[in-house]
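Example S7 (structure tokens).
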């Protein structure tokens, strides 16, 4: 039975989500503000978090940012749930490491379907889990979320790390921008494919000489070698 943490200040919405997820045999924890949600996440280490953006005390973006920086909570998938639907809010939330983004009002069936999809994807990753991926000059510590080039730590955003990890774990395979958006961002929102190009460019700048591992196939996509 997977554990899901709901961090939502509107109690009626939180209880409705809880009721429907319990019907699907999930175990539920709830918090009505950001600080209590953050504490519960660190104490319980849930399998997934449904996180509202507009929270009292500590907003959802800050909660997400803190969770993704902490080694023991960095791998917990997060579904952002909010009344904000602007493109900027979506991109910002996903940039901080959220796995999906659903705008209120929402379909409960859609929320449950997305949660199940994310959990299935995470289960598949755990089967092939390697804590540290090593190459000649590049080391990716998937548990601590640390990347080193020639033993020197490199600071990456959550999505830059996720993109590098995905490519490295699937080395020599070519992926289109659309596939990378779906696999790394894990969403069906209207974010332009150039988002991938921007992240690849930033990755290359930060990786320096190790950027040679990321190859561009013009008109096709990217691969890790």
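Recovered sequence:
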């Amino acid at each position: 039975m997977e554990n899901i943490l709901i961090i939502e200040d509107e109690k009626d919405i939180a209880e409705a989500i809880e009721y429907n997820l319990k019907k699907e045999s999930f175990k539920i924890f709830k918090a009505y503000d950001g600080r209590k949600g953050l504490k519960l996440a660190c104490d319980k280490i849930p399998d997934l978090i449904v996180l509202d953006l507009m929270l009292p005390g500590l907003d959802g973006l800050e909660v997400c940012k803190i969770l993704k920086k902490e080694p023991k909570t960095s791998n917990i998938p997060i579904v952002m749930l909010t009344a904000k639907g602007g493109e900027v809010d979506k991109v910002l939330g996903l940039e901080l490491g959220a796995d999906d983004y659903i705008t209120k009002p929402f379909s409960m069936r859609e929320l449950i379907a997305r949660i199940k999809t994310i959990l299935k994807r995470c289960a598949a990753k755990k089967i092939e889990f390697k804590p540290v991926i090593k190459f000649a000059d590049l080391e990716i510590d998937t548990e601590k979320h640390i990347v080193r080039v020639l033993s020197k730590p490199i600071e990456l955003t959550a999505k830059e790390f996720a993109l590098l990890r995905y490519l490295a774990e699937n080395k020599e395979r070519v992926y289109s921008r659309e596939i990378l958006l779906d696999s790394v961002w894990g969403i069906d929102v209207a974010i332009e494919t150039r988002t991938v190009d921007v992240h690849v460019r930033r990755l290359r700048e930060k990786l320096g000489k190790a950027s040679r591992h990321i190859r561009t196939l013009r008109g096709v996509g990217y691969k890790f070698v």
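Notes on this example. The two ends are 38 Å apart (CA to CA).
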